[in-house]
Write a structure and sequence with these properties.
Distance between the termini: 7 Å
Strand content: 5-15%
Oligomer: single chain
CATH architecture of the largest domain: 2-Layer Sandwich
CATH superfamily of the largest domain: Beta Polymerase, domain 2
Shape: elongated
Protein name: Polymerase nucleotidyl transferase domain-containing protein
Structural class: alpha+beta
Radius of gyration: 20 Å
Number of strands: 8
Length: about 300
């Protein structure tokens, strides 16, 4: 794939979310092509002259999609408010000693939230403490959680992804998952868990070869706060094992009639009520077809 096709593919992917990109973002999230900013800038200019790409206020987008620049500005306004609330949720979760990482995912991680959106959180737990940690986290954030019936969603916490530190690698290797991982916004972690998470998912560079993790850029503050200390839970194994089994049984029993597209295992929990991944990949393929670009 040449630079021009890669730029168009990148803009087409983010166009699904009504999200124009600036030069740095195109470089950072360039699809399937290792390139430098100078080459990308030249490629953008050629595409602009050819009428395939337009630019407004430093944002680039596909032809005829100028309106999404205004959409992005509006969603940034909503997102900044939600990020402050997410930071509050993350601060509360520091109380739970078995929480090893808290991050924002989804649209909010790109400051692309609608006013009505909830706040998606990713949590990493120590080995064999997945269900106990989920129980404690849900109880702690209970007053702030989204309503399962869908009546109270805006600005509410949605704890939709839990990972055991022994299973940080995400099995779905595709364009959507690669973007979700790269765009994840770290709030805080213990024991450099975020760095371990990125190393465990090094496959993402097959899709986004330019991308590099930048903790200072990903955190909500300019300076990263000192990480809270982690406990060695192995010392409490005799107590933890039966509690974990009980927590798992109780939560699965509670969810027995509520599960839809959720994915549950002993080490990873994905609570997504809609199959967004399949929809995004299908829309991306449609976009490439319109641009006469082969699916990379």
């Amino acid at each position: 794939m040449n630079v021009a096709s890669s730029i168009l593919s990148t803009l087409a992917y983010h166009d699904i979310f009504d999200y124009p990109l600036d030069l740095h973002e195109i470089f950072d999230l360039l699809i399937k092509k290792k390139s430098d900013k100078e080459s990308i800038a030249r490629g953008l200019e050629r595409l602009r002259v050819a009428g395939k790409v337009s630019e407004n206020n430093g944002c680039f987008f596909l032809k005829g999609r100028r309106k999404i620049v205004r959409v992005r500005k509006l969603r940034i306004k909503y997102s900044l408010k939600k990020l402050k609330r997410a930071a509050f949720f993350a601060k509360l979760l520091r109380i739970v000693p078995s929480v090893k990482l808290v991050a924002v995912s989804g649209a909010l991680s790109m400051k692309n939230s609608r006013k009505s959106d909830d706040i998606d959180l990713v949590i990493v737990t120590p080995k064999s403490l997945l269900w106990t940690t989920r129980l404690l986290a849900n109880l702690l954030l209970l007053p702030f959680k989204r309503d399962p019936a869908g009546k109270k969603i805006s600005d509410r916490a949605c704890l939709n992804m839990f990972l055991d530190e022994s299973a940080l690698s995400i099995k779905d290797h595709n364009m959507y998952t690669a973007h979700e991982i790269c765009q994840m916004k770290l709030l805080w972690d213990r024991d450099n868990t975020y760095s371990k998470f990125i190393r465990a998912n090094s496959w993402i560079r097959e899709y986004l070869p330019n991308w590099e993790a930048d903790v200072k850029r990903l955190t909500t503050n300019d300076k990263r706060k000192k990480s809270p200390k982690a406990l060695d839970f192995r010392r409490f194994a005799l107590v933890i094992e039966p509690l974990e089994a009980l927590a798992k049984w109780g939560q699965l029993w509670y969810m027995r009639n509520k599960l839809t597209t959720e994915r549950i295992s002993n080490t990873q929990l994905f609570f997504h009520p809609k199959d967004t991944q399949s929809w995004v990949i299908a829309e991306y393929q449609k976009g490439l077809k319109k641009l006469n670009i082969a699916d990379p």
